[in-house]
């Protein structure tokens, strides 16, 4: 094979012709051949590969985190005395969202000012949006929307939660971490960070 001319080699590559080593099993040869099909419409997909018995041997699908039904609901927060005067929703429920200052807001909303790539080698894809609601209200709405979308919810801390799709997608179960930050009493920032699964 290595004695072929460049033209002959290019023809074999274009036709997806490959010589397998003798120690390759028949099942692995068939799967690789289906991966090398030139026509993308006829090429085997990831979901089809996962159904091949040879591929499933000793295969454990990667899961960024697992949400158990028994811990899907957060524990009851300890009773907290109400202060005299005007109280926010966060004070009543004992929830303290992390604050988001002006510099963080500018850098996160504008890619030109985001310098995190200079310090972080591996960055997970993130999506952010703002809301004119208190952080606790946004958190409650996110949880309601997630359950309506058939997702499991696990509360990590205060206004941070992990969401996981119950069904398998093309790239596995969609797992997302969502956190609500407080910019002002009536302004919040929501950050979504995908851990695994299909693209957001």
From TrEMBL:
Q: Name one GO molecular function term.
A: ATP binding
Identify the Pfam families for this entry: NAF
User: What UniProt keywords apply to this chain's record, in alphabetical order?
Assistant: ATP-binding, Kinase, Manganese, Nucleotide-binding, Serine/threonine-protein kinase, Transferase
Which BP terms from GO are recorded? Answer: signal transduction
* EC number of this enzyme: 2.7.11.1
Which reactions appear under catalytic activity for this entry? L-seryl-[protein] + ATP = O-phospho-L-seryl-[protein] + ADP + H(+); L-threonyl-[protein] + ATP = O-phospho-L-threonyl-[protein] + ADP + H(+)
Which cofactor is essential here? Answer: Mn(2+)
Which CDD domains does the protein's record reference?
CIPK_C
Q: Does the keyword Nucleotide-binding apply?
A: yes
Enumerate the residue ranges of region (Disordered).
67-96
- All copies of domain NAF, residue ranges: 95-120
Task: Name the family the entry cites.
Answer: Belongs to the protein kinase superfamily. CAMK Ser/Thr protein kinase family. SNF1 subfamily.
Instruction: Specify the protein name.
Output: non-specific serine/threonine protein kinase
Organism encoding this protein = Thlaspi arvense (Field penny-cress)
């Amino acid at each position: 094979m290595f004695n072929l001319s460049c033209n002959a080699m290019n023809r074999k590559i274009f036709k997806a012709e490959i010589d397998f080593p003798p120690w390759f099993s028949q099942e692995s040869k068939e799967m690789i051949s289906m991966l090398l099909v030139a026509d993308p419409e006829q090429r085997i997909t990831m979901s089809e590969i996962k159904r091949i018995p040879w591929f499933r041997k000793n295969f454990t699908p990667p899961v960024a985190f697992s949400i158990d039904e028994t811990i899907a609901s957060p524990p009851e927060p300890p009773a907290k005395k109400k202060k005299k005067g005007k109280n926010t929703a966060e004070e009543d429920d004992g929830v303290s969202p992390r604050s988001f200052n002006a510099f963080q807001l500018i850098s996160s909303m504008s890619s030109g000012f985001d310098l995190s790539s200079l310090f972080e080698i591996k960055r997970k894809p993130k999506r952010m949006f703002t809301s004119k609601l208190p952080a606790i209200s946004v958190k409650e709405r996110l949880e309601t929307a997630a359950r309506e979308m058939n997702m499991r919810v696990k509360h990590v801390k205060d206004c941070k939660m992990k969401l996981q799709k119950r069904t398998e997608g093309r790239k596995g179960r969609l797992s997302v971490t969502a956190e609500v930050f407080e910019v002002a009493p009536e302004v919040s920032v929501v950050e979504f960070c995908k851990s695994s699964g299909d693209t957001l």
